[in-house]
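Fold it.
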Amino acid sequence: MNYDCNMLADLLFPHITGTVAELEEKYPERKLKDGARVTRFAPSPTGYLHIGGLFGALVDVLTAKATNGISYLRIEDTDKKREIDDGVSAIINGFDSFGIEFDEGVTGFNREKGDYGPYTQSKRSEIYQTVAKELVKKGLAYPCFCTAEELSAIREEQEKGDALIWGYFGKWAKCRDLSFEEIEKNIKAGKPYVLRFRSDGQEDKRIFFDDIIRGKIEMPENIIDEVLLKSDGIPTYHFAHACDDHFMRTTHVIRGEEWISSVPKHIALFKACGFRVPKYAHTPQVMKIDEDDGTKRKLSKRKDPEAAVSYFAEEGFPKESLIEYLLTLLNSNFEDWRRANPREDAFSFPFNLKKMSPSGCLFDLVKLNDVSKNTVSVMDADTVYGYIADWSKKYDEDFFKVFTADPKRSRDIVNIDRESPKPRKDIAKWSEVKEYFAYMFEEYYTPSFELPENIANEDAKAILQKYAEVYDENDDKDVWFSKIKDLCEPLGFTPNVKEYKKNPELFKGHVGDVSTVIRLAVTGRKNTPDLCSIMKLLGKDTVKSRIDNIIV
């Protein structure tokens, strides 16, 4: 450089009067306990929250909680080509749907909480330009006037030649050594320019850093003169995140493994700016088994509906279930912890980054369903009723009207076989409830009387005729079942299942077959929750009507 860097800084940033020292004072070190971690989730407002994003955000929140730290949501909206109108709301709604709550950051459209904002990058341009001006003063940044055509020509030359990597560096960094007079002339002529980082990296040197999940990683030093500010003054991701992570006092940068290749340039930027380098943890990608060839692949926005977090809300998976399932992917010891703490809030789990696997996490909808059935089974009736009502109001208006017409009855319906030591595990998501309990609502009930192969039609009708004679809607479970057992012997069945298994040729069936006939007549199903409870809620008139319709 053959010019005064301060003169260049004033030429490029005449409007910037603040200093980095003032920013350090405005955004001081956080007063947290030793070991507390400050994490951030920083999506672009594309209007789409990927399941991998929820996965990553959960890691950020749990890491902060486990250390009495702070997690915050930052919106990185410097790439205006990807942004969509009100894309922030889609992100916020996705997190709200599944109980992900940050301590600070963006909380909605033009809404924030916390002392380290703004938490939206487009509102932080003065911060970036203040830091950029400081880099120019230090001789660590310079303007580049190369056109798109010139950059393409450089790339073609590198591809044809023997360059180890492609980019703006070394002999190809044509604007790196422009004189002050050349720079001033170009600016006065109105030539557009970007601001580039002046890298001091060398091709034969390597860096080492400790990744909390992956251990020690060795990579080549950064030698690229990366763009810091685009021609419109907007920062690139690389520069913006270094400034933001520093002044928001992020201690741990947790992000997807696809960012590992960028670590050398990020470390170079932190050091050039005089910022402390944060700790890094690169999480594995969320994968699935491809149905076509059986190989593992990334969840695809185009191919897989479950790639979008909105899919789980629309299907009616409880927020607790999805979080519970993701935790089984995050830490292998979670399931042991859950067995020991069956009623604890999942967010109280002592999450540990070091116990994350570096290999891809396999997302399995079948396993999610199993986890969700367990989760739903231990919810009380009021909670289940509220969730079903909320879900159906948004996604199934007709069912909402039917289900909420008699709230007490519907609560009693979902409470059948629920609040007991061994609750049924049949429902995984709220979209299943209408079909699961269709026989409880006349609007959805469809008669069906497909008998098991071992039950003759005339025997089934005989069972129903005799049962109709003794049916009493006031019977408790014991009396109800004793009446069914009493029907058995006169009709050629045995009340003793073991006796039937021992000598099946002596009987038409056993007490279970008799109750199945009644169950089919009343519900149209071979398998339901407790039949006595169902019949009480259906009421005498409905039960007798359904049985009579089969007998006729």
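The domain at 457-551 is CATH 1.10.10.350 (Arc Repressor Mutant, subunit A).
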